[in-house]
Amino acid sequence: MTVGGCTASRMEQRNGCWVRQVRSFPSSVKEEIGPCARPTPVWSEDRLTRLVQECVMHADYRWQSSALVAWNRGDTLPEREPEEKVLTACMARAETVLNAEKGAVEQRLSEVSQERDLLKANLEKEREAYQASIDKVRAKHDASLEQARAQHDEHMARARDQMHESNGRLTEVLGEAAKKPAPAAIATATSSSTSEGKANTQSDSLARGDSASRGDSNSSSRRDSSSRKDSTTRGPTVAKPTSGAPLPMCPPPSVAKQVRADASRQEPAGAEEPMTCNPQKPAESFEPAPAVQPVLATPSEQTAKAPTPLKPDGEQPGSAE
């Protein structure tokens, strides 16, 4: 808005056109219509159409600027280009822009493809390295397993050979032992008696038989020791009378003489003689001798003791006569 003297001018835009309003004294109003803009289009979502619309609006804006400058100077307004020409130029420009964008997109796509190929190559290289390391570890593990298996087989073969060798030696030893003749049986006996009429007889039979080749020495030794233990725990053997009637007890010698004299006076002729008193003698032991036990080792020598005869304290009843 400008003011000069008594005149005032103001410019405004109405319905897309520029209007100049001049007020002069006292109340006169004068309006001048200037250049008009193209109507605003409905913006499209299509990329190519949107580029054409923007190009047309830019061309119209440039013409409005040049028309306003000429109008303010009072010059003739510049000629506006036809709409077909503007559209053709805008179409060419839009194609150029699209081609440029397409080139940029293709270049970017090629860069992305190169990056993808590089990443793929790096990934393949890493995978090959990892596979090589896995193969190396697997080969090392297989080698260790093979070595352990070989050592185990060697150890088992050595143990088998040792077992066969020991079995062969044992067979040879048993064969040599079977070829040796059996030794003669050795039997020992020990007898003892006391003045009370008690007698004790112990026997030990040791023999070497065929069981030596069968390894029965331990069992025979156990049976021998058990038989000795039983004979020892049973105690001495007491002599028993051989007849059914009990034997009279032998009195002292003086009493025996007196009894015999009285009996000779009282008994009539033809009477039976009184039973004489005979000292008790140990009877032979009826215990069965232990079985001959075969042993491998030669038994130690044992001494045999003869039974001591019983001696009466005085004379016998028959010695007085």
Question: What does this molecule look like?
Answer:
The chain is of the alpha+beta class. Among the domains are: 1-36; 81-180. The protein is 48% helix and 16% strand. The protein contains four helices and eight strands. It has helices at 47-73, 83-179, 217-233, 253-266, and strands at 2-4, 7-14, 17-24, 28-36, 186-193, 198-207, 237-238, 293-294. The strands form two sheets. The chain has a four-stranded antiparallel β-sheet. Strands 5, 6, 7 and 8 form a four-stranded mixed β-sheet that branches. Strand 1 (2-4) and strand 2 form a beta hairpin. Helix 1 (47-73) runs antiparallel to helix 2 (83-179). The longest helix has 97 residues, at 83-179. Residues 180-199, 210-220 have a biased composition (Low complexity). Residues 143-164, 177-321 are annotated as: Disordered. Residues 221-232 have a biased composition (Basic and acidic residues).
- Shape descriptor reads rod-shaped
| Major sheet summary line | 4 strands, antiparallel
- Low-pLDDT runs of 5+ residues are 205-218, 292-297, 314-321
Q: Let me know the average pLDDT.
A: 73
Q: Residue share in helices?
A: 40-55%
- How much is the radius of gyration in Å? 76 Å
Count the helices. How many?
Answer: 4
Task: Outline the fold blueprint.
Elements: E1 2-4, E2 7-14, E3 17-24, E4 28-36, H1 47-73, H2 83-179, E5 186-193, E6 198-207, H3 217-233, E7 237-238, H4 253-266, E8 293-294
Parallel strand pairs: 6-8
Antiparallel strand pairs: 1-2, 2-3, 3-4, 5-6, 6-7
